[in-house]
Amino acid sequence: MPDVHSLVNEFILKLKKRKVEGSQATARLAAVLLRSVISQQRIGYTNQAGALIDAVKAVGEQLVAANPVEIAVGNIVRRVLHIIRDEDLSLTTAAMAGLNLSAVSDDDDDDTSPDDHPVLSAAAVAAAARSTLRPPSLQSLLEDMPDSAAVPHTSSSGGDSEGKSKSADKNSRSRKLKHDVIEAVNELIQDIDTCHEQIAEQAVEHIHHNEVILTLGSSRTVLQFLCAAREKKRSFRVFVAEGAPRYQGHLLAKELVARGLQTTLITDSAIFAMISRVNMVIVGAHAVMANGGVIAPVGLNMVALAAQRHAVPFVVLAGSHKLCPLYPHNPEVLLNELRSPSELLDFGEFSDCMDFGSGSGSPLLHVVNPAFDYVPPKLVSLFITDTGGHNPSYMYRLIADYYSADDLVLQRKAAPST
Amino acid sequence: MGAQKKSSAAAAARISDDPEELSRVPLQAVLLADSFTTKFRPITLERPKVLLPLANVPMIEYALTWLESAGVEEVFVFCCAHAKQVTNYLQCSQWLSQPNFSVATIESHNSVSAGDALRLIYERNVIHGDFILISGDTLSNMSLNRALQEHKERKKKDSNAVMTMVIKRSKLSPVTQQSRLGTDELFMAIDPDTKQLLYYEENTNHLKGTLSLDKMLLIDNPSITLHNDMQDCFIDICSPEVLSLFTDNFDYQHLRRHFVKGLLVDDIMGYKIYTHEIHSSYAARVDNYRSYDTISKDIIQRWTYPLVPDVLLFGNSATKLEREGIYRATEIVQSRSAQIGPLTVIGNGTRIGNNTKITNSVIGKGCSIGSNVLIEGSYIWDNVTVEDGCQLKHSIVCDGVVIKSGSVLSPGVVLSFKVVVGQNFTVPAYSKVSLLPQPTKQDSDEELEYADNNSDIETSPIAGAHDNLNGELTSDLTDMQSSAAEELGSGGAGYIWSICEGASEEEWRHSVAPVPAEKLAEISQTIDDDLDFSYQDGNAPASSGELKPGGLSDSDDDDVDANNDSAYFEKEVEATFLRAVHENVKVDHVILEVNSLKLSYNMEFAACAGAIFYSMMKLALGTPYNSSAELYNAVVNVLTSWKRLLKSYLSGKDEEIEIILKFEEMCSELAKELSPLFTKILCFLYDKDMISEDAILDWESEKNYADESDRVFVKQAEKFLQWLREASEEEEED
C-alpha cells in the first residue's frame, strides 16, 4: 500500500494540472483517497472522531485548493466529515445506552457521569433521531448495541476496574468507529458509481411518447437517462445543441444514434428557434448550489431562458455528489474556469490581432472562454437526483441531510489562510 | 533524490543497439538550461535565463510541468552557466521528489554551445531511446503523443529519420513575426506528403526578399511546399543517433544553424528531418526580450492553459483571475484609488499606493509601489521598490531594484538586479543597467555563452556616452562603484551599459517596448517594395517551384561543385577503363558501368566521352615507348581496340568537340610528348569516323578568337584543316 501522503500529492497534482476533470471522476477519486486517509490514520483513545475529522479536513483543504472549480471534491470532503460525525454520534449513543445500563445497576457509583448522562444521552438520542433519516447509520446503531453494551456489563462488578474497562471500551470503539466510517465511505463511493443508474431509473416517469427532448453539450447522466427511456420502449426525439466551443454535443449525438434514438443536431444559436417544438429540456450540471441554482456548462443559461420564455420544463439531472451545501452569493464560491482561447480561435490565424509589439502595446482583441454558466433557481423546473425528483426550493433541505453545518466553513476557512 | 548519481551509474552500463532493446524505454527528455546566447544580458550575468520569471513563475517550471504532463518520465537538465543556481533551485523545488518523473541534473562548466552539451550527454550515455530535446525557455501545452507516434512509425520504416521538429503556423506577415517574437523570418521547404523538412533558412538578412534554393531540391522532390508562415517551436523529438551525430561532427554548435542545416545539406549519410505541425496547442520559445513580452502576454491571455497563473500554484500563493484578465494574489495591499488595468498579474504581498495606475504589466511578489506611479507594459520582478511619482513604460525591472521618487523609465529599459535609480532621473530608452560593469570584451568567463549575433554589445566599459549630472567624477578604478552610482542620478547605483554604434539601430527589434510606428511603416514599406519588385520580375517566389531544373544550373556554388564532381568522375571512369583493359571486360559491360557512373555523378555524355578518351590516352602513354612513332602506334592500338566504347558516347558534334578539346588540353598540360602527334592522331580519328569534319571545323572556329597560346594546335593542324575545308567545299560544289 503506497504512502497516503504521496497518494494525496499525486491526486493534488492531477487536480492542479487538470488531468482529472468531471465531477463524477473527481468525486470518486476524492472519496477513494479519503478512505485510505482514514484507514491509515492512527487514532488515540480520546477524541478519535476529532482526530479523523482533523486529518480529513487537512487533506480536504489541500484538495479544494488544488482545483476549487471542481466543487464535487469539496462536496465529498464534507460528506466524509459528515459521515465521521454521524458514526461517532451513533457510537456515542450506543455507548451511552450501555453506560446508562451499568449506572442503573451500580447504585453506589459516584462518578460525574450521572450528571452528564441526561445531557449526553439527550444529545445522543437527538443524533440517533437525526441519523434515522439515513437508514445505514440507524442499522449500524442497532448492530452495535449488544456488542458495546456487553463490555461494561462484564467489568462493572469491580469498582476499581471501571477505568480499565472504559479504555477497553474506547479501544474497541475506536476500531469500531474507523470500521464504520470506512463502511459508510464505501457506500458513498458506491452511491457515486451508481448515481447514473439511479437517476436513469426514473427516466420513464419523465419522458413520454412522441416527446421532443432538448439537451446541450454532453453529459453521461443525460445520455444514460435518455437511453434508459429508450430501453423502456419509449419513442421520442432528441435535439442536441452542439455545445460550442468544445462541441461535445457532436459526441452525444453520435452515441444517441448508435443506440437507435432519433436525433437532431443543432447549433447553440438555433436553440431559441427550436425551443417552441420542444417538450422538455433535460441537461446535466456541474454543481447544484444550496439555493437550487446550478453551475452548468456554458450556454445553459441561454437554454434555461429560452425554456422559460416558451414555458418548457427545464430539468436538471445531478448525482448527489454534485449537491453543494454553499450558497452562490460569494464570488469565491461561484467560480468559473477560463479555458484556453485556442478552443475558439486558431492562434496562427489571429496572431496578428493579439500583437503587443505594435501600436499602443495592448491588443484590441481579447478572447474569453469561460467553462461554466450559472442558472438561477427560478429557471429550473425540477432536479432529478439519485433519491428522486425535487423542487429547487427543496434543495437546501436535501443538502442538510448530507452535510453537517459545522463543515460548511471548510472552504471559507481555507481561503483567507492561503 | 540522488538523481545525479543515477546518471553516472547509468553511464557505466553500456547499452547495445539491439532492436529488442527498443521495446520499452521510458520517454526521456533533455532540457538545456542554458540558451548559449547573450540576448538576455545583463540579467543573465547574475541569474541563468531559465530561472527568470515569466508571469512570476520561473521559466523552467513551465518547461518541466509541460514535460511531466506530456508523459516524459526522465528529464536531464543540462546546466552550464550558473549551474549551481539551477541545481539549488531544483533541489528546493518539488521536482526531485516526484513519483514517475525523475529530474537529474548534468553540470558542465566548459560547454559553450548546445552542441557541446549534447556531446557531453552522449559521453554520459544516459539516453537510451527517443528523447525530447528542448531548451529550458520553451513553453508549450501540446500533447506529444501524436508527434511521438509519427516519429516512431517513420523511424520504423526508415532508420534515417532521426528527428521530428515541431512547427506551428503563424500569421503570414513579417510585421507580425517581427513584432511578436522578434525573430527573423523563417523559410522552410517541406514535402507536403511525407512532411520531410527539405530546407531551413532564417532570413537574417532583413527583408531582402530573395532566397536561393538548391536545384537538387526541385529535381529530387516531385512536390515541395515553401513556407514562410511557420514558426519553429524549438521542440525536437530526436532519436539517439542525434547525439552521436553531434559527436561525429564536433564542429556542430548551434542546433538549427549547424545541425539542422548540416543534415539537410549532407546527402551522403541520408539522415532526414521531419516536421510535425501543431494546430490548437501552444508552443513558443523565449528567445529575446520581445518574445519574453509576447509570451508573458500569451500566458496572461490563457493561450497556454493550463499553464496559467491561477491554475499553476507554485508556492502557496493562490492567484485569482478577475475580469479583463487581472490576476491578483490573495494577499495584496492595494489602495482604493489605485487603478489596475486589464491583463495584469500582481504577486503576493505587494503593496500599491494611491492613484497608481497599472496596465498590461506583471508585478512580482513583495513589491512596494508608491503613490501616483504609472506602470505600463512593464515586468517588475520580486521585492522591487518603486517610490512615488515614477513612470515605468515597457521596461523590465529585476529583483531588488529601487526606483526613487520621480524617476522615469523610458520604453525598452532593462534594470538588472538591485540597481538603484536616483531621484528624478530619466533612464534613456533601450538602455540596460546593471550593478556589474559591462564586460570589456566578449569573454566567456562570467557566463558560458557564445555570442552569435553581431548586434550584441561590444567593447568599451562604462562609456561616457551617457555621462550625466555629476559625470565628471573619478578616473580611478577603485572609485568605479561611486562613478556607477552617479550614472543613475543622485543616490543611484549601477552602470548603464553602452550600446555600440551599429547595435542601437537594432535595439528596437528585441526590446520589450512596442515597435516604433515608423519602424513598422518601414517594414511594411520594404515588403511592398519587395512584392512590387518580384511582380515586375514576373517571377514570384511561389512559381519558382515549377521551373525546369536545367534552367537553374548557373550559380557559383554549382560550378565549384561541378568541378569537383567532374574530377572525381574522371578518376572513376579511368579506373573503370583500366580495370576493363586489365581484366578483359566486355565492352558492353564497360559501357554499362560508365553509364551508371554518369548517372550517379549526373554527368552529360560529352563528359563521358572526354573522360573515356582521356583514359585511353593515359593508357597509351602508360605503355613504354622510345620514339614518337612508337607512341603513335600505341595510341592507334588503344584507339582501335576500344573504338566501340568511345563511339558509343559520340552521339553528336558536341561530344566530338569535347574530345578534341580534351585532347588539346592533355597535349598542352599533361602529356607534352603527345603534342607533336596532335595532328596525326586527329587525322586518325577522322579517318576512323570517330570525329566528323564538322566537329573539327567547329572546333577551329571556336578557337578563332582565342589567345595565341591557345591556338598552338590549331596552327599545327592548319594543313589538315585546310584539306578538310577544301574537301567540304568540293562536296558543296558537287
The figure for the number of domains of chain A is 2
Radius of gyration of chain A: 26 Å
Structure classification of chain A: alpha/beta
| Low-confidence runs of at least 5 consecutive residues of chain A | 105-119, 131-165, 411-418
Topology of chain A as a string of helices (H) and strands (E): HHHHHHHHEHEHEHEEEHEHEEEHH
Short recap of the structure:
The complex is a heterodimer of chains A (about 425) and B (about 725). Chain A is of the alpha/beta class and about 425 residues long.
Describe it for me?
The complex is a heterodimer of chains A (418) and B (734). Chain A is α/β, with parallel strands linked by helices. Chain A has two domains: 191 residues, no CATH class; 182 residues, Rossmann fold, CATH 3.40.50.10470. In chain A, the strands form two sheets. Chain A has a seven-stranded mixed sheet. In chain A, strands 5-6-8 form a three-stranded antiparallel sheet, covered by helices on one side. The longest helix of chain A is centred in the middle third of the chain and has 40 residues. The radius of gyration of chain A is 26 Å and the shape is globular. The C terminus of chain A is likely disordered. Chain B starts with a helix and ends with a helix. In chain B, 38% of the residues lie in helices and 17% in strands. A ten-stranded mixed sheet of chain B has the order 5-4-1-6-12-8-13-10-9-11, sandwiched between helices. Chain B is α/β, with parallel strands linked by helices. Chain B folds into four domains: 274 residues, Alpha-Beta Complex (Spore Coat Polysaccharide Biosynthesis Protein SpsA, Chain A), CATH 3.90.550; 198 residues, UDP N-Acetylglucosamine Acyltransferase, domain 1 (3 Solenoid), CATH 2.160.10; 27 residues; 181 residues, Serine Threonine Protein Phosphatase 5, Tetratricopeptide repeat, CATH 1.25.40. At the A-B interface, helix 1 and helix 13 of A face helix 2, helix 6 and helix 10 of B.
